[in-house]
User: Which sequence fits this backbone?
């Protein structure tokens, strides 16, 4: 895992002299990560030319003044800077940002990052959520189609595929509006966030391990979320199910079928077959074509055989 050194970036911003041999990005092995506390940014990507890529961040210390000034004007750089400021306030020396901490020119590194991302968010000390399109100083409690016409009336972050695991995995999630004003955290606003995302508030407060939702339930949370690439509708769910797969961009909807097969291989949760054929039609397989097929499966729960039998007996006696 490659992390951004918070103090180095802030020193550059404050005009302090930084040794050209200093590092701004550092790769840490898993055993080193166990001793390191870090923050992590969750955000919606803007235009690719506005984001700061790995090579640009790696060269930041050695970059000439004019080039650095131009880079600093990008919205992608500004959210990294603001995230560093928040991390430093929280006593964190390291930060992970997906735009600049992954060398996406390496397919092996990209595949490893996508398969590790849930764990990286889960292990973070703080997750900073940047709602770039929200001006209000509180998390919205009612939808606003006028303000957010392309994301079902809510800030765009709540409609994206990858941000689902970025909301569920970390223990401490802090939300910021477009001006980087703190507007609330996940646990204290669990009920509001649940009404937006359909994720039960108990899971937002205590995590997946505390309640073990069914496969169909988890799929239902992703039913209306969007990704730029079709394959990412499947890849963005791997961590939520604890499965790993190679990335095969170009396979289209087959990625979601592969995900379901991997879930079946790893668990005995038969709710994976509970998708709605009535509204979606027959897919030609016992597997669904897309997470949207699970839209109405949010009330399907896992039960052990003895629990099920007890429930049947209770129902038959009117208890």
Assistant:
């Amino acid at each position: 895992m490659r992390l951004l050194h918070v103090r180095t970036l802030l020193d550059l911003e404050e005009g302090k002299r930084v040794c050209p041999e200093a590092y701004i990005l550092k790769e840490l092995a898993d055993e080193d990560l166990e001793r390191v506390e870090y923050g992590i940014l969750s955000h919606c990507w803007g235009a690719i030319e506005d984001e700061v890529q790995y090579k640009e961040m790696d060269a930041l210390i050695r970059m000439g003044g004019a080039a650095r000034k131009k880079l600093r004007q990008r919205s992608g750089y500004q959210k990294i800077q603001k995230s560093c400021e928040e991390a430093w306030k929280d006593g964190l020396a390291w930060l992970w940002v997906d735009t600049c901490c992954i060398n996406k020119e390496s397919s092996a590194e990209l595949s490893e990052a996508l398969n590790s991302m849930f764990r990286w968010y889960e292990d973070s000390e703080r997750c900073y959520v940047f709602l770039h399109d929200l001006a209000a100083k509180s998390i919205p409690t009612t939808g606003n189609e006028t303000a957010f016409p392309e994301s079902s009336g809510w800030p765009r972050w709540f409609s994206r595929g990858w941000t689902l695991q970025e909301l569920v995995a970390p223990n401490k999630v802090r939300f910021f509006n477009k001006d980087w004003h703190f507007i609330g955290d996940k646990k204290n606003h669990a009920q509001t966030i649940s009404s937006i995302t359909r994720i039960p508030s108990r899971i937002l407060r205590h995590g997946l391990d505390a309640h073990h939702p069914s496969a169909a339930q988890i799929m239902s949370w992703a039913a209306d979320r969007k990704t730029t690439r079709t394959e990412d509708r499947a890849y963005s769910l791997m961590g939520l199910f604890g499965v790993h797969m190679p990335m095969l961009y170009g396979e289209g909807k087959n990625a979601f079928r592969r995900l379901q097969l991997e879930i079946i291989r790893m668990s005995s949760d038969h709710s994976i077959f509970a998708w709605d054929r009535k509204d979606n039609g027959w897919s030609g397989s016992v597997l669904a074509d897309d997470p949207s097929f699970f839209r109405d499966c949010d009330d399907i729960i896992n039960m052990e055989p003895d629990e099920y039998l007890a429930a049947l007996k209770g129902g038959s006696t009117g208890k």
In short: The mean pLDDT is 93. Residues 107-123 form the longest helix (17 residues).
